[in-house]
Amino acid sequence: MRSSTRTAALVTGAVVVLLAPVAALRAWSEPADPRISVGAPAPATLLPGDVREPAGRMIANAVWTGLVSYDPGTGAPGNAAAASITSPDRRVWTVRLRPGATFQDGSPVTSRSFTGAWTAVLREGWAGARLFTEVAHVKGARRGAETVAGLKVEDEQTFEVTLDRPLSGFPALLGDPAFFPLPDSVLESRDWAAYGRLPVGNGPFRVASRSSREIVLQRRSGRGRSVVVKAMPDARVQYNAAAAGDLDVATRVPPDRHESMDADFGGRHLAVPGRDVTYLAFPAWEERLASPTVRSALSMAIDRSAVIEGALGHQYSPADSLIAPGIRPGHREGQCRLCVHDSKAAAAALADAGGLSGPLNVWYEANRGDDAWVKAVTDQLREELKLDARPHPVADLRKAGDDHEVDGPFVIHTTAAYPAPVAALAPLLDAGTGFDDAYTTDLVADAERAAAPEEGVIPARLAESAMLRDMPALPLWSAHDHLVWSERVRGVTAGAFTGLRLDRLTVRK
């Protein structure tokens, strides 16, 4: 008996010894938290009509399904919640919804879910209101409006939208969170604060919980892993956590790690082209800056890459076009040859134009974060062209332009509202430059009212070529996003108009 007992004990001990490394391996390969983790700054709100930051857009695109969605590879819009979006004249649009769609609380998604939400964006004056008033030009749309004449419900699955002028890109615009639907419960209660903390959408994820530290998103289907968006505003903390395997996806990269991403992560990093561009524009009323040759000289004197690697911390890409690189339809590279730094050509061009005397003030909005790079640019203009270039911050740049106080180049930032070349060009005509060339403005109008979005590409590109010749605004750079991820995660996909696609994330099997 003693021998049998001893043998059993030895066998049991052997099993424990054998199982220990297996358990350790399982603990290493299956972390205590099985959720997919994403680092990002905490969004100010989850109200889709009021989101302002990339993190808010990223989450909104997971919690809601818009009328259209964007292909992350091509940027092209395609119907999602909409069964069809049609118009005989690009001004009056009929939207038909896919039947049977519901919100995550089980309530139906109807025409009023959209028209009521859009009216709320305008009535409450949320960030998305400008898309209705300044981009789509919906009839009767204005901030504070209780009703909007251009929105008409036909039935539970059909509604009509009337614009003040034709816009072929209107369907593409409808993928923005400002156009996402809201359930009847919040449209009736108008308790936006409570809804914004824990919203109910119609998309593939639902917000399971939210705290100051994290937002937990559960897949509505019940299949697949939950995603936790961790509040991590510091790029270095995100990056180090992803490198250590403590975070699955980092949405920010610190400036001094851009050159080492490949060494740190191998192929597990991605640059996502942006949809915004920063320009230096020229006031039409300032005669000494009216010559395209002078403007070209200033453009060639700016070493965009040096500013990006220095003052801008590698977070931008040098501009080679008036159009942001994240706008994929009709994309062309290298359109702005005068954006290439060339000291000798810049000096020769300025000499041919007769020079430029007196102070050259570079005007920009104070307290917007532009101080460092504006100083870098003025330093370059002084060194390259021997100009008396000076940074000139003001509290209200738009008012200074309207009052014709601006006497030098001034900074403008634009963001394309939808993925089409004309969406990047149209804001430049309203940037306060006074530029009103009839040929160019007619081409932009032709692009906006084209019979189909693809037919608007050619007039938009012709307009770009014309603007690059006259140079009412010289493009500097476009922001881009960087993503790095751990060995555990798969399916990292992102686009300029959606950000990181949380619904595509999976883990290694």
Short description:
Helices cover 33% and strands 21% of the residues. By secondary structure, it is of the alpha+beta class.
Q: Would you give an account of this structure?
A:
Pfam families: SBP_bac_5. It comes from Actinomadura chokoriensis. InterPro entries: Peptide/Ni-bd, SBP_5, SBP_5_dom. This is ABC transporter substrate-binding protein. Residues 81-429 form the Solute-binding protein family domain. There is one protein chain. The strands form six sheets. Strands 1, 8, 9, 10, 11, 12, 13, 14, 17 and 18 form a ten-stranded mixed β-sheet that branches. Strands 4-5-7-6 form a four-stranded antiparallel β-sheet, covered by helices on one side. The chain is an alpha+beta fold and 509 residues long. It contains 17 helices and 22 strands. It has three domains: 31-64 and 203-268 and 486-509, D-Maltodextrin-Binding Protein, domain 2 (3-Layer(aba) Sandwich); 65-184, Dipeptide-binding Protein, domain 1; 276-480, Dipeptide-binding Protein, domain 3, CATH 3.10.105.10. The longest helix has 28 residues, at 2-29. Helices cover 33% and strands 21% of the residues.
Multimerization state: single chain
Rg (C-alpha, Å): 27 Å
Taken as a percent bin, the fraction of beta residues is: 15-25%
- Strands, count: 22
CATH architectural arrangement of the largest domain: Roll
CATH class call of the largest domain: Alpha Beta
Largest sheet, if any? 10 strands, mixed
Uncertain ranges: 1-29
Assign the CATH topology of the largest domain: Dipeptide-binding Protein, domain 3
Mean pLDDT score, rounded?
Answer: 92
Helix content: 25-40%
Q: Please report the number of helical segments.
A: 17
Query: In total, how many domains does the architecture comprise?
Result: 3
Distance between the termini: 47 Å
Judging from the principal axes of the Cα atoms, what is the shape? Answer: globular
